[in-house]
Design the sequence.
């Protein structure tokens, strides 16, 4: 499944930025802050508390109704309820999913609810909120309270309401609007996208990363790649093997040389365990998208950067679960970051488009069913250990996925994929960050503790062009 929403999202981002640039300089009620300051503080509070991307956007946009009506700065002073929550929610519903628009629609009702059920809440209201409360119907009745509790997104609206009341500090320093609008792609994920991902196991997000984010991945790749190359050279000079280094440096990168040239770096691992900067970037941008797609929290499982050098780096057709089944999690999701652009010439990823329909029709091609997902028959041992059997792979329809450094590819551990050798004159780097469902426990430290202790174990080299693959 490919989602190229770059044009639509770019248009929406420009529309929001224009509204906030042109109309958010209005005073926020009777406070000594502007609508823009209030919106940015609200979004910053939501983000700092770890709220979902959709709620961060709802916090940023909850008062957009004030900015698109023509009733002045504080219509409540003239006894007018501007119904900004309804106006704003209708505007948002045409552009974003209910996870954004519904908390906005309900955030005034949430104030009425809290005033009814929390005796201390009313005393915390600012004078303009007290004034508008009267126009909005006052505290809820018992029947209204009961009805509100049964609404979808009621909890999100209550969270938004509490943030709304706090975001009134004239001295607060916040990121700009653009910082919070980076959550737009994640907020687009709904039930249809989750169902399609569960079926196909692949999502390609075009222009997901901002230019500065792509540059950050490039810089981190360069610095860690240089460190990994130095470790490989040091191992050769000292007479240690990569396995020795992995075992004796518990916080260091794990380096894997090329099969044909032990002086050449093939890949390195333990990326987010080694780089706090990368861990923060992944937690802020990639993990929320995976959770939105999978519909539940996910944790890091393992990671690597492949250095696909000219003439090398081909990976046979495989499903990652063939390698991961030796560990606890029954389902994993991987994010691929194209540090360098991936093309057909330099060996981009290829995915089997028809596999979800193919597996149910060919029970003889299925090795096992794991929680409703098909693991296709694969080689066990030998040079092609882990690769899907040739007679099965040949019946799959393969599609090349070329990507830029701003694209994000997400695929699960059952999506068949492969890649050709790098036929270009330049190396091509790609990071692969793999996660497991949080309900299956924390595996990152356990995985790498075991890999450092048993570096040469073939279970760590399934469907990879490395010396221990067989």
Sequence:
């Amino acid at each position: 499944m490919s989602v190229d929403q770059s044009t639509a999202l770019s248009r929406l981002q420009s529309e929001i930025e224009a509204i906030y640039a042109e109309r958010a300089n209005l005073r926020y009620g009777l406070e000594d802050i502007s609508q823009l300051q209030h919106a940015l503080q609200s979004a910053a509070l939501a983000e700092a508390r770890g709220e979902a991307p959709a709620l961060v956007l709802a916090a940023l946009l909850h008062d957009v109704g004030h900015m698109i009506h023509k009733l002045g700065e504080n219509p409540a002073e003239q006894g007018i309820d501007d119904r900004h929550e309804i106006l704003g929610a209708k505007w948002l519903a045409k552009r974003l999913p209910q996870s954004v628009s519904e908390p906005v629609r309900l955030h005034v009702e949430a104030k009425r609810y809290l005033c009814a059920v929390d005796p201390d809440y009313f005393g915390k209201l600012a004078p303009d909120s007290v004034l508008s409360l009267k126009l909005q119907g006052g505290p809820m009745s018992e029947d209204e309270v009961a009805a509100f509790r049964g609404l979808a997104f009621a909890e999100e609206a209550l969270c938004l309401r509490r943030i709304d009341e706090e975001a009134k500090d004239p001295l607060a320093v916040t990121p700009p609007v653009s910082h919070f609008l980076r959550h737009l792609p994640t907020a687009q994920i709904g039930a249809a996208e989750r169902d399609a991902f569960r079926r196909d196991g692949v999502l390609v997000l075009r222009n997901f990363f901002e230019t500065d984010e792509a540059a950050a991945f490039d810089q981190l790749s360069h610095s860690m790649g240089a460190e990994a190359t130095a470790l490989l050279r040091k191992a050769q000079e000292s007479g240690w093997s990569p396995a020795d280094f992995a075992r004796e440096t518990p916080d260091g990168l794990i380096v894997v040389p090329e099969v044909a040239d032990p002086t050449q770096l093939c890949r390195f691992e333990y990326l987010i365990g080694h780089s706090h900067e990368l861990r923060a970037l992944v937690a802020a941008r990639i993990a929320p998208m995976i959770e939105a797609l999978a519909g539940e929290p996910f944790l890091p499982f393992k990671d690597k950067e492949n250095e696909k050098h000219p003439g090398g780096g081909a990976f046979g057709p495989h499903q990652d679960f063939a390698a991961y089944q030796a560990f606890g999690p029954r389902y994993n999701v991987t994010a691929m970051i194209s540090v360098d652009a991936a093309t057909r010439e330099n060996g981009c990823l290829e995915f089997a488009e028809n596999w979800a329909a193919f597996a149910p029709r060919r029970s003889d091609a299925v090795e096992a069913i794991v929680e409703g997902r098909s693991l296709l028959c694969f080689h066990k041992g030998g040079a092609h250990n882990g690769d899907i059997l040739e007679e099965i792979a040949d019946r799959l329809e393969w599609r090349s996925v070329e990507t830029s450094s701003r694209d994000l590819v997400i695929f699960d551990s059952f999506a068949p994929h492969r890649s050709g050798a790098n036929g270009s004159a330049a190396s091509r780097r790609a990071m692969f960050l793999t996660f497991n469902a949080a309900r299956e426990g924390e595996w990152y430290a356990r995985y790498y503790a075991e890999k450092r202790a048993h570096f040469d174990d073939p279970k760590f080299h399934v469907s990879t062009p490395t010396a221990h693959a067989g």
About this structure: The chain has a mean pLDDT of 89. The longest strand covers residues 298-308. Residues 380 and 411 are 23 Å apart (CA to CA). DSSP finds 20 helices and 14 strands in the chain.
